[in-house]
Design goal:
By secondary structure, the protein is mostly helical. It is about 65% helix and about 5% strand. A two-stranded antiparallel ribbon has the order 1-2. A hairpin with a 3-residue loop joins strand 1 and strand 2. Helix 1 packs across helix 4. The radius of gyration is 19 Å and the shape is elongated. It holds the Pfam family GntR.
Length: about 120
């Protein structure tokens, strides 16, 4: 489930964000508690709490004191925008840089992508 390349709390926060994107947790819906996540994932409760607090800091979740954590309004849009930015930085910009070196046009790149999606 978790790998050794990044801290567990970051991986858990990313997994919860993915669950929100996929509709597992809707805006306004309660997410599992720190202790529930820790027990289910077999991790330290402090690690689970750190993941949840990170999502609170990013305004993906909000706390209702004494009740639990809930998905914020607009959380799905914030996650999508952040991931699109990451996709652009990690993949699109390097792709365009390499395409320039190879002398490819935008049309050439689109054709390559379409060819790959057909396979």
């Amino acid at each position: 489930m978790f790998d050794d390349t990044r801290p567990i709390f970051l991986q858990l926060a990313e997994q919860l964000a993915s669950d929100i994107l996929r509709g597992r947790y809707a805006e306004g819906e309660q997410v599992p508690s720190t202790n529930e996540l820790a027990a289910y994932m077999r991790i330290n409760p402090a690690t689970a709490g750190k993941a949840l607090n990170l999502l609170v800091d990013e305004e993906i979740l909000y706390k209702k004191r004494g009740i639990g954590m809930f998905v914020s309004d607009g959380a799905k849009q914030r996650i999508t925008a952040e991931r699109q930015q990451g996709l652009t930085e990690s993949y699109v910009k390097p792709l365009l840089a390499e395409a320039r070196v190879l002398g490819l046009t935008a049309t050439d790149i689109i054709r390559l992508i379409e060819k790959e999606t057909e396979q």
